[in-house]
């Protein structure tokens, strides 16, 4: 089958593994039966590409092509096939299916890599358990056994429970660790999820740095009193305080000196949540990102100061709970150069750029040399059913990945 058809057919088929088709997008959260079925399908495609397949203790799926020097540190490539809620069909999926396609291309070009190539579909890049990238975190040694009980999804199911439900053993977490000395380089192909490439007319992004999130939960507690009987001056309205905190976050982020800080409140929980009760308790899940660590830290600190001040002024209690604090990563020059050389060899216009989204490569970048390849996202839309990348750009991404792997595996 031609490259184009195999890749597009596989992406379309994987999109059918969906727990909420009525919503219009794709919902395929890690460790669900639907996710497992999708992963089993990916394993079949890996085997068809001649790879030796194994599943590790946290459900990371690997496919190995042994090099002519199997003892040499290997080249790792992949992404994820879980989705956030009501998502698109390309986020993560391209990096896994594009890698399988890259293997087909290298084989048909008669390439015989010196270093082994290992493909991976990391488990749980999307934050089902509040924290994203749980599979790569386990591989990087950034997850402890206690974290698996602590990390819970929106229904209160712990990651340990979800692992057991998926037939995996949380007590084997340490087996998922990857010894960094065994990895020469990691490269991840991904859709851009922003509009930089599209607006610049380039088809390939050569990622030089990945911004990282500092996520925290702000809980504001006031008094859940009668909405009709409580005069305005006697209220302690937790949601009005939370609204002020959100506006303050937006102001602080816009004023951040790096010019690259972003801040989002993506989850608001209001209790009791009745129209005739003053909100007594509100949780805000706050996500602040930058590739400039000092600028990000400045916004977090100023937000906490502002939240304390407004809570005191409004008679609210404030609690700040850490969720995750990742370090931004700089891509390895030799991986960046390999990506650029692969794109230029194909005459594809490319540009160097930073990634605003996080990726498994960011987590693994704390341990091993990494790089990333981006392809354009139409309209910069992602984490949305309308996420789209033109078919020829998907193919270009797989071609550039193949060229990059061939260079890195020499
Ligand atoms: C990844 O999904 C992110 O939120 O950046
Ligand atoms: Mn995503
Ligand atoms: Mn992704």
Q: Largest sheet at a glance?
A: 9 strands, mixed
Number of DSSP strands? 13
Work out the helix count. 12
Could you name the ranges where pLDDT drops below 50 across 5 or more consecutive residues?
Answer: none
Overview of the structural elements:
There is one protein chain. By secondary structure, the protein is of the alpha/beta class. It has helices spanning 3-15, 33-48, 93-108, 134-140, 145-150, 159-165, 196-200, 238-254, 293-314, 333-345, 360-364, 391-408; strands at 52-55, 61-65, 74-80, 117-122, 183-191, 204-210, 212-221, 262-271, 281-290, 317-325, 329-330, 350-355, 370-375. Strands 1, 2, 3, 4, 5, 6, 11, 12 and 13 form a nine-stranded mixed β-sheet that branches. It has a four-stranded antiparallel β-sheet with strand order 8-9-7-10, covered by helices on one side. Helix 3 (93-108) packs across helix 12 and helix 8 (238-254) runs antiparallel to helix 9 (293-314). The longest helix has 22 residues, at 293-314. It is globular and about 80 Å long. The model has no long low-confidence stretch (mean pLDDT 97).
Write the layout of secondary structure elements.
Elements: H1 3-15, H2 33-48, E1 52-55, E2 61-65, E3 74-80, H3 93-108, E4 117-122, H4 134-140, H5 145-150, H6 159-165, E5 183-191, H7 196-200, E6 204-210, E7 212-221, H8 238-254, E8 262-271, E9 281-290, H9 293-314, E10 317-325, E11 329-330, H10 333-345, E12 350-355, H11 360-364, E13 370-375, H12 391-408
Parallel strand pairs: 3-4, 3-5, 5-13, 6-12
Antiparallel strand pairs: 1-2, 2-4, 6-11, 6-13, 7-9, 7-10, 8-9
Helix pairs in contact: 1-3, 1-12, 3-12, 8-9, 10-12
This protein binds glyoxylic acid and manganese (II) ion (2 copies).
């Amino acid at each position: 089958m031609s490259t184009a058809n195999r890749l597009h057919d596989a992406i379309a088929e994987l999109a059918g593994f969906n727990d909420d088709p009525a919503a219009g997008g794709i919902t395929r959260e890690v460790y669900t039966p639907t996710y497992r079925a999708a992963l089993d399908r990916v394993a079949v495609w890996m085997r068809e590409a001649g790879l030796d397949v194994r599943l590790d203790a946290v459900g990371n799926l690997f496919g190995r092509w042994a090099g002519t020097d199997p003892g040499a540190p290997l080249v790792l490539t992949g992404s994820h096939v879980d989705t956030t809620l009501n998502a698109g069909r390309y986020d993560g999926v391209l990096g896994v299916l594009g890698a399988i396609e890259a293997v087909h291309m290298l084989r048909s070009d008669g390439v015989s890599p010196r270093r082994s190539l290992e493909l991976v579909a990391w488990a749980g890049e999307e934050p089902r358990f509040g924290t994203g990238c749980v599979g790569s975190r386990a591989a990087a040694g950034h997850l402890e056994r206690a974290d698996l009980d602590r990390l819970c999804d929106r229904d209160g199911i712990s990651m340990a429970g979800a692992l057991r439900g998926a037939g995996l053993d949380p007590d084997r977490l340490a087996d998922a660790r990857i010894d960094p000395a065994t990895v020469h380089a990691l490269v991840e192909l991904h859709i851009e999820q922003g509009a930089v490439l599209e607006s610049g007319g380039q088809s390939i992004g050569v990622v030089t740095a990945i911004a990282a999130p500092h996520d925290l939960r702000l809980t504001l507690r006031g008094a859940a009193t009668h909405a009709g009987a409580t005069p305005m001056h006697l209220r302690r309205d937790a949601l009005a305080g939370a609204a002020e905190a959100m506006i303050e976050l937006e102001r602080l982020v816009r004023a951040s000196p790096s010019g690259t800080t972003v801040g989002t409140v993506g989850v608001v929980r209001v209790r009791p949540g009745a129209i005739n009760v003053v909100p007594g308790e509100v949780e805000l899940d706050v996500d602040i990102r930058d590739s400039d660590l000092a600028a990000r830290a400045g916004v977090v600190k100023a937000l906490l100061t502002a939240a304390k001040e407004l809570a005191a002024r409004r008679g609210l209690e404030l609690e700040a709970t850490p969720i995750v604090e990742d370090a931004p990563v700089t891509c390895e020059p030799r991986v960046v150069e390999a990506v650029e050389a692969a794109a230029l060899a194909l005459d594809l216009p490319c540009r160097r750029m930073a990634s605003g989204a996080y990726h498994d490569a960011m987590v693994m970048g704390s341990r091993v040399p990494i790089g990333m390849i981006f392809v354009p996202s139409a309209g910069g839309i992602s984490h949305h059913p309308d996420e789209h990348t033109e078919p020829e750009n998907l193919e270009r991404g797989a071609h550039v990945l193949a060229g990059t792997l061939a260079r890195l595996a020499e």
